[in-house]
Amino acid sequence: MSLLTSPQPADADPAAAPFLDVRDLRVHFPTEDGIVKSVDGVSFSLEKGSTLGIVGESGSGKSVTSLALLGLHKGTRAQVSGEIRLEGRELVSLPEHDMRALRGRTVSMIFQDPLSALHPYFTVGAQIAEGYRVHHRVSKKEARDRAVEMLKRVGIPQPERRARDYPHQFSGGMRQRAMIAMALVCDPELLIADEPTTALDVTVQAQILDLIRDLQEEFGSAVVLITHDLGVVADIADDILVMYGGRRIEYGTVHDVLKEPQHPYTWGLLESMPQITGDVERRLNPIAGSPPSLINPPGGCAFHPRCTYKGWVPGGRCATDRPELLPVPGTGRHLAACHLTPETRTEIRGRTAAGAAQ
Amino acid sequence: MRAADEQEHAVSTTQPAGEHLLDVRGLTKHFPIRHGIVFQRQIGAVHAVDGIDFTVAAGQSLGLVGESGCGKSTTGRLVTRLLKPTAGRVVFDGEDITHTPENRMKEARRNLQMIFQDPYSSLNPRHTVGTIVETPMRLNGINPPQGHKKRAQELLETVGLSPEHYNRYPNEFSGGQRQRIGIARALALRPKLIVADEPVSALDVSIQAQIVNLLQDLQREFGIAFVFIAHDLAVVRHFCERVAVMYLGKIVEVADRRTLYTGPRHPYTHALLSAVPEADPDGTRRRERIRLAGDVPSPVDPPSGCRFRTRCWKAQERCAREEPPLVRLAGSTDGHLTACHFPEEPSVAAREEDIVLDPALSASGDSESTSS
């Protein structure tokens, strides 16, 4: 099996090792029914100051990947293997005690649902200050000032007063801002945002996404953004990783993946999204069927039972051989895992384009 | 200002006169807020829906969009009379159903069905799929010639399930399949109007497209009118010929979809459209960028005058004083109604200067165009 980890093929040089390098990450959960292979051999890399968007449907393993980056599977029954290197430091085998020193300070996370991620019993200011005091030897007063400063930075009006409020006194958008303030209080180098805007309204979502981008530029951190919304990724990410059934199926820059998608699943995702501009009469082209079982994933390509184009691959290879993630010819860092030959893909895309135009 | 004088008081409503299947006038719903343990007195009210007018013609689909708390779901529940309106009138199929007693609503509901948002809580877990789909027919005393079971199985096939699913329970189905069961139940009585309250927002993108296509096919085949409630502007654009934008219990703009999505006049519609993320890396640069500050104000104590004025970049003193009527503005097409004193230009193309009101964000042109 090939272990192409990064879109940049030049990862042989140890001096130029990427800031975050994930190799062949596997997270398996043993259950009564069998082993759930939530994440099954995922690799990616990320440089400081850039954003990676991980896209996939529910159950594709994107959130489990993000929890693994934070080491939150430690102490559970999950079996984690593979490598996560952050600035050369291996995180998978790191003991919980050392991981705690990194968590919040070097790696930090914005959760999806701010109401359940914030503690209802403590004031917002106290919760932000707590994270700062864990990692810095400062007085309560200093930590508190830092919390107010962070609340101000994320755009909460009257931060002095709002720091004394409890989470239920905040609106949804403000809670998410408070979560961001909490995640950024120690200037983390890696920020993981797991569906940070899914629970929010669209105008607030736009504010929060812009805020994450602004803060990233200011602090120069690396961001892993997990979402099911290709629109959100197009807006904010540099690279996209498309996951299906716990595996990578397409990986490349935002422009390559969204403008020149190579995998039938990515085509399906794009064609099933209604657009805000363009032809309204264009019929949506949904992906048939439903997501695969993670206990008994389909043999060969996990997507083949739902794939419209498996007939184009000679010999029924889709059901037997698992396609490797290979570079798309003509591009340096665009990878796709599909048995279709480039010629066939061009032909299929030409047909669908012609069909859409009619 | 000039724009204000341009307003002309257009003909009363949304549509050229004619028979409307659904005609809603001045619909209002206030939920009382009570205080006290034994003697409860009312200390305020949530102004969920505050006087809205709209009509839906037979076979047409009207989209209601807006952010959470704008009253779109309440409107859907008022139309189906799952809630009793505080004021206003709902005329369905020539009959005023606003004050019809509950025991007589059965007749109206034969033609007026609802699809709910959450496919997990809207199906009784102790009933089989067959029972769920048959119950509306039994309650209304409809005896199809082929029998209830056969008819239910036909309906299951219509919505893309297998007739063998008849004896299964809802927990054996995925979210998308459950939503199909909910749709089969709504279709069982061959209604004239279906109110679909966020029918696809709980589903994954690929499943969402399957359900949207199914609803579209059913609409074409059976000529059902829809009130389609959603917060996703792209889905609404795809499904509805006419779209109404709601903000804090009011309709602020209504137009046919082409006009609304390419030439909106209300600043809120502009802000809403500009906030929709697009799966096209070049798309964001072509469109205008408007970032509002803060969240929607509380519907307990909505702002005076125009309700959007607290977040609007064009707000002036007049906006606080006078509530703008929902009328056709000069330069708008027929049937395009906007409630704004100082409307925007009908274009969504990128502006010279972005409008960024959020204090935490830096405008890329590093200047704020907050005008007064």
Automatic annotation (TrEMBL), chain A:
<comment type="similarity">
    <text>Belongs to the ABC transporter superfamily.</text>
</comment>
<dbReference type="GO" id="GO:0005524">
    <property type="term" value="F:ATP binding"/>
</dbReference>
<dbReference type="GO" id="GO:0015833">
    <property type="term" value="P:peptide transport"/>
</dbReference>
<protein>
    <submittedName>
        <fullName>Peptide ABC transporter ATP-binding protein</fullName>
    </submittedName>
</protein>
<dbReference type="InterPro" id="IPR013563">
    <property type="entry name" value="Oligopep_ABC_C"/>
</dbReference>
<dbReference type="InterPro" id="IPR003439">
    <property type="entry name" value="ABC_transporter-like_ATP-bd"/>
</dbReference>
<feature type="domain" description="ABC transporter">
    <location>
        <begin position="22"/>
        <end position="270"/>
    </location>
</feature>
<dbReference type="GO" id="GO:0005886">
    <property type="term" value="C:plasma membrane"/>
</dbReference>
<keyword id="KW-0547">Nucleotide-binding</keyword>
<keyword id="KW-1003">Cell membrane</keyword>
<dbReference type="InterPro" id="IPR017871">
    <property type="entry name" value="ABC_transporter-like_CS"/>
</dbReference>
<dbReference type="GO" id="GO:0016887">
    <property type="term" value="F:ATP hydrolysis activity"/>
</dbReference>
<dbReference type="Pfam" id="PF00005">
    <property type="entry name" value="ABC_tran"/>
</dbReference>
<dbReference type="InterPro" id="IPR003593">
    <property type="entry name" value="AAA+_ATPase"/>
</dbReference>
<dbReference type="InterPro" id="IPR050388">
    <property type="entry name" value="ABC_Ni/Peptide_Import"/>
</dbReference>
<keyword id="KW-0067">ATP-binding</keyword>
<dbReference type="Pfam" id="PF08352">
    <property type="entry name" value="oligo_HPY"/>
</dbReference>
<keyword id="KW-0472">Membrane</keyword>
<dbReference type="InterPro" id="IPR027417">
    <property type="entry name" value="P-loop_NTPase"/>
</dbReference>
<keyword id="KW-0813">Transport</keyword>
Automatic annotation (TrEMBL), chain B:
<dbReference type="GO" id="GO:0055085">
    <property type="term" value="P:transmembrane transport"/>
</dbReference>
<dbReference type="InterPro" id="IPR003439">
    <property type="entry name" value="ABC_transporter-like_ATP-bd"/>
</dbReference>
<keyword id="KW-0547">Nucleotide-binding</keyword>
<dbReference type="InterPro" id="IPR013563">
    <property type="entry name" value="Oligopep_ABC_C"/>
</dbReference>
<keyword id="KW-0813">Transport</keyword>
<protein>
    <submittedName>
        <fullName>Dipeptide/oligopeptide/nickel ABC transporter ATP-binding protein</fullName>
    </submittedName>
</protein>
<dbReference type="InterPro" id="IPR027417">
    <property type="entry name" value="P-loop_NTPase"/>
</dbReference>
<dbReference type="GO" id="GO:0015833">
    <property type="term" value="P:peptide transport"/>
</dbReference>
<dbReference type="InterPro" id="IPR050319">
    <property type="entry name" value="ABC_transp_ATP-bind"/>
</dbReference>
<keyword id="KW-0067">ATP-binding</keyword>
<dbReference type="Pfam" id="PF00005">
    <property type="entry name" value="ABC_tran"/>
</dbReference>
<dbReference type="GO" id="GO:0005524">
    <property type="term" value="F:ATP binding"/>
</dbReference>
<comment type="similarity">
    <text>Belongs to the ABC transporter superfamily.</text>
</comment>
<feature type="domain" description="ABC transporter">
    <location>
        <begin position="33"/>
        <end position="273"/>
    </location>
</feature>
<dbReference type="GO" id="GO:0016887">
    <property type="term" value="F:ATP hydrolysis activity"/>
</dbReference>
<dbReference type="Pfam" id="PF08352">
    <property type="entry name" value="oligo_HPY"/>
</dbReference>
<dbReference type="InterPro" id="IPR017871">
    <property type="entry name" value="ABC_transporter-like_CS"/>
</dbReference>
<dbReference type="InterPro" id="IPR003593">
    <property type="entry name" value="AAA+_ATPase"/>
</dbReference>
